[in-house]
Amino acid sequence: MSHHASGPNFGFPRGDARLDMTDLYAFPKPGDPGKSILILNVHPSSAVNPPSPTTSEPFAPGALYEFKVDTDGDAIADVAFRVQVASSEDGTQTATLRRIQGERAAGVGDDGEVIVKDAPVSVEREDLVTKAGDYRCFFGWRSDPFFFDANGLFNKMQFTGDDFFKDKNVCSIVLELPNSALGSSPVGLWARTVDRTGEGWVQAERGARPMQAVFLPGEEREAYLGGEPAADGRFIDVFAHELQHTGGYTREDALGVARTLLPDILPYDARLPASYPQNGRTLIDDAVDPFLSLLTNGKVTEDKVGPHGDLLAEFPYVGPPHRAA
Q1: Residue 227, CB half-sphere, CA atoms under 13 Å: how many?
Q2: R_g over Cα of the chain
Q3: Is residue 223 a contact partner of residue 238, using CB atoms and an 8 Å limit?
Q4: In Å, what is the CA distance from 12 to each residue of 24, 32, 227?
Q5: For residue 275, pLDDT beyond 60
């Protein structure tokens, strides 16, 4: 179900909900084609196994939350936007945004050009928006825009239209930035979370296209989440096996479909309207139905759930959090 609970046994990567990436969105700014909106949602407010609330602290202090941008089609980042959060003794958090370009964008670290420093992280329903030049940023709890009948998935894909996420929250990182900051269009996008440990930086999760990682078996899923798009060719056989098993594809057809899903990168051309899966992803795009149709070879085509009604028409676009956060 998107990247929600994509760790072992539908838990969280490294056992930390704050490091769990849920969804990546990219679309042109409404009314201003010279800018784009990037949204990375992390930290689901509710665990799946077992069902229970997660921590109220929005982000993992010291960890990295990154947008990766491939500008030349080699599945290696040429530009990166890194967000790092610090916690104060009173429990409040602040976020710093950095931009990295060139070879260093493919690596990991807390270096780079500072775009925004010590922006406030929102924990209530207010929109704490920070402006810096051509950039606008938001960091904090929001209503989860992902829509899906998750219980139907676990009930042998018997979907009833019960939206598991209609009252759930996530922590959003929302960036408004000039298209020139992404590099020349079109680009490829993905996101990742990176934990800072005593042994160094450890990638906790990465992804771009929703739904994919949760269908991988345990060890393969761990390798996938810790890997890089440029090496995704090694998972084609695994994806093809699942497509054969679930959708009844022939081996040849399954391999062909698997190759359309990998590398796990979201194509985005800021000059064109966004529409998943062809170009970027908006908050109202139904990412579940086309994936179900592909996974089952057309046997299941919808989960009977539509977009949420609490989205905003202006920045930060993601709806205010439900009170449960």
Answers
A1: 20
A2: 18
A3: no
A4: 17, 37, 17
A5: yes
Model confidence pLDDT, tens digit, residues 59-106: 999 999 999 999 999 999 999 999 999 999 888 999 999 999 999 999
For residues 25 and 287, the answer to whether their CB atoms sit within 8 Å is: no
- With 0.90 as the threshold, say if the pTM is over it: yes
Token reading at 47: 């665990």
Residues present in the chain in total = 325
- Cβ(147)–Cβ(166) below 8 Å: yes
Query: How far apart (Å, rounded) are the C-alpha atoms in residues 140 and 57?
Result: 10
Measured in whole angstroms, how far is the alpha carbon of residue 274 from the centre of its chain? 16
Percent of the chain with pLDDT over 70: 95
Tens digits of residue pLDDT in 173-219: 999 999 999 998 899 999 999 999 988 999 999 999 998 876 677 78
DSSP state for residue 266 in the 8-state scheme: E
The DSSP line for 76-126 is S-SEEEEEEEEE-TTS-EEEEEEEEESGGGGS--S-SEEEEEEEEPB-SSS
139 and 118 Cβ atoms separated by less than 8 Å: no
Task: For residue 19, give the DSSP letter.
Answer: G
pLDDT band at 4 (very low <50, low <70, confident <90, very high): low
Q: How many other β-carbons are positioned within 10 Å of the β-carbon of residue 136?
A: 19
Cβ(42)–Cβ(146) under 8 Å? no
- Say what the pLDDT of residue 7 is: 54
Buried b (16+ CB within 10 A) or exposed e, 171-202: bbbbbbbebebbbeebbbbbbbbbbbeeeeeb
The DSSP-derived string for 269-323 is -TTS--BTTTB-B-TT---HHHHHHHHTTTS----S----S---SSTT-SPPPPT
* pLDDT top residue among 46 and 312: 312
Instruction: Classify residue 38 by burial, with Cβ atoms within 10 Å: 0-12, 13-18, 19+.
Output: buried
Residue 14's pLDDT band (boundaries 50, 70, 90)? confident
